[in-house]
Design a protein that fits this description.
Elements: H1 3-9, H2 17-25, H3 31-70, H4 73-76, E1 80-81, E2 91-93, E3 96-98, E4 103-104, H5 107-137, H6 144-156, H7 159-185, H8 202-227, H9 230-238, H10 243-254, H11 256-272, H12 275-280, H13 299-305, H14 307-310, H15 317-353
Antiparallel strand pairs: 1-4, 2-3
Helix pairs in contact: 3-15, 5-8, 5-11, 6-8, 7-8, 8-11, 9-10, 11-15, 13-15
Length: 354
């Protein structure tokens, strides 16, 4: 499908008088203006890709000694120990040395990253859909600007504020109220079985992440629905559908690609969240959570929490292993983005076939 065909399907055509008028007003029909525009957009696109590549190269080069030293243990090992800094001697592997007893396994942190993000998305996605649909079709027009402003304000709140609220309000409530009641009455379920913990843990971290990603999804899905022609909703209503049927069976399927993109953007934010998660996750080391209330740790959080102790490692291997964890997190994000683009491409092909 060409760009012109895509534009026509989306309701925008180069032949549209409004588009032609804007092009003339901005001087884009002149050859030199078109050349400047192409050079400017091309340069910014190349620079954006170049920055990402340079970050990846820098992390990989800095972490290369750790990659050689740790091997596959960074993905399969469960023990993180920078070693005995007060002992004598060192251990050597593949030509690189570290403190005696040093082990750098990251599987616990990879699990924590995926677990907190997944639980957060399970809670956040349905709520985001309902809120965005309500903002478009249910909230009265006179208060809709205020509701939209509140959603955007939530998206702009610093993560440390969410983390502080989690420490002061959410964690004590989970530790003293929710977790004891859940383990006492629902302990037969694996996710609630075992020690209730102090409140710092997987549920607290996932809740904070969900609160942070919901506004991002709501704003994106709302804008995608607003950009969709109102004729889809009106035509469905004219055929006898209820408003709920018109939204769920006509409007949402027509904006499926935009919703998938919103979910993947939010999932990427959930994977990389640091400070708010660090403040409520419990910063577990070398242990998996036995239920949803126990302490956990993520790749981003452990890089921050272990950086100070890693700086005391005279061999430097602890710092480079933290950089290797950053490479792992970077790789997970890239893989998810590639999967998202594959899903979107498949959806585009199915729409073209129709």
């Amino acid at each position: 499908m060409t760009s012109i065909e895509r534009g026509r399907r989306s309701g925008v055509s180069p032949e549209d008088p409004l588009v032609k008028g804007l092009a003339r007003a901005w001087g884009l029909q002149r050859p030199w203006a078109q050349l400047i525009f192409k050079l400017g957009t091309g340069t910014t696109a190349v620079l954006s890709a170049l920055v990402v590549v340079l970050i990846c190269v820098f992390l990989t080069v800095f972490a290369w000694p750790a990659i050689r030293f740790n091997g596959w243990n960074i993905l399969t090992g469960t023990i993180w120990n920078i070693g005995n800094q007060y002992g004598s001697g060192s251990i050597t592997h593949n030509g690189y040395s570290a403190e005696p007893g040093a082990q750098f396994g990251g599987l616990v942190f990879i699990f924590g990253t995926l677990a907190t993000a997944t639980v957060a998305m399970i809670a956040a996605v349905p709520l985001a859909f309902l809120v965005s649909v309500a903002l478009v079709y249910r909230v009265p027009a006179r208060i809709r600007p205020l509701a939209n402003a509140l959603v955007e304000l939530m998206a702009g709140v610093p993560s440390v504020v969410y983390g502080l609220w989690g420490m002061v309000v959410l964690v004590p409530w989970i530790g003293t109220k929710l977790a004891p009641a859940a383990t006492a009455h629902l302990g037969f379920l694996p996710i609630f079985h075992g020690d209730a913990g102090s409140g710092n843990g997987l549920l607290a971290a996932s809740t904070i992440i969900a609160l942070m990603v919901i506004p991002i999804m709501v704003a994106t899905i709302r804008d995608v629905i607003n950009a969709q022609a109102t004729s889809v909703y009106e035509a469905s209503m004219a055929l006898g559908s209820t408003s709920w049927q018109a939204v769920t069976r006509a409007v949402l399927p027509s904006v499926r690609n935009g919703m998938i993109a919103a979910i993947m953007v939010a999932f990427g934010r959930a994977l990389g969240e640091t400070m708010a998660v660090l403040m409520v996750c419990g910063a577990a080391i070398n242990t998996y959570p036995q239920n949803i209330f126990q302490s956990v740790n993520t790749l981003a959080a452990v890089i921050v929490s272990q950086l100070e102790s890693a700086l005391t490692d005279s061999s430097g291997m602890a710092q480079r292993s933290l950089a290797e964890l950053a490479v792992v997190l970077f790789a997970i994000t890239v893989v998810l983005n590639m999967l998202a683009r594959g899903i979107l491409r498949g959806a585009d092909r199915s729409q073209e076939a129709q």
